[in-house]
Amino acid sequence: MTKSPGAGRIRQTLRDATMEDHDRVDALFSPHALDDKGDYRAFLIAHARALGALEPAARPAAPRLPLLERDLDALDTPMPAPMVLPENNMENGGDGYRWGLLYALEGSRLGGAMLARRVGADLPKSYLSATHGKGDWIAFQTAMDVAGMEGGEGWLDAAVQGARAAFALFAGAAQAVVPARAHG
User: Fold this and answer.
1) Which residues, at least 6 apart from 18, have a Cβ–Cβ distance to it below 8 Å?
2) Sign (positive or negative) of CA dihedral 86, 140, 30, 19
3) Nearest to 118 by CA among 10, 19, 3, 29
4) CB count, 10 Å around CB of 132?
């Protein structure tokens, strides 16, 4: 069992525990050329499938699914069916698991800011441009630290499981959607 670290260290523990998962997701999405309409559409579809499963379970303060739907609509693309997040994990992991999901979702906003710069000028980018406001990422980390300190035994293990589950959904979504340029 993972011991709960002191305040300010939960994010680092989650980062260390999920580094390989994160790297895998980055590698799976890296073939998408975000300045190409077809590739970008495939990228957004994959994200919509994962986000559609994650946001209802994680309940983020600022959901991005409506922004993603707006971008897909601008590309004349309907929202895809969401993937499935195994229910038993949410029930067994409770609050820690939910915070792990949130960690992956909120962390993806940081990457979204960098990716938004690569999106073609004529393409919509509401989803990737939905970054944290000044101080929001630090406030999230502080809230996660408090939740972890109050969460008791097993909270951090559940948070790691939640974060890994979120990365697994994004990986599965990426594998199911091939970049448009790969088709020739």
Assistant:
1) 104, 160, 163, 164, 167
2) negative
3) 29
4) 17
CB 75 within 8 A of CB 37: yes
Query: Two tokens at 112?
Result: 């979204």
For 7, which DSSP code? Answer: T
Give CA separation, 163 vs 98, 114, 148, 166, 168, in Å.
Answer: 8, 21, 14, 5, 9
| 157 Cβ contact partners less than 8 Å away, ≥ 6 residues apart | 1, 2, 96
What does the pLDDT look like over 104-163, one tens digit per residue? 999 999 999 999 999 999 999 999 999 999 989 989 999 999 999 898 889 999 999 999
- CATH code 3.30.1540.10 for 10-183: no
The predicted pLDDT at position 184 comes to: 47
Sequence-separated (6 or more) residues with CB below 8 Å from residue 176:
46, 49
> In this predicted structure, what is the pLDDT of residue 2?
45
At residue 180, what is the residue type?
Answer: A
Looking at every residue in the chain, the average pLDDT score rounds to 90
Those residues whose C-beta lies under 8 Å from the C-beta of residue 126, and which sit 6 or more positions away, are 67, 68, 70, 71
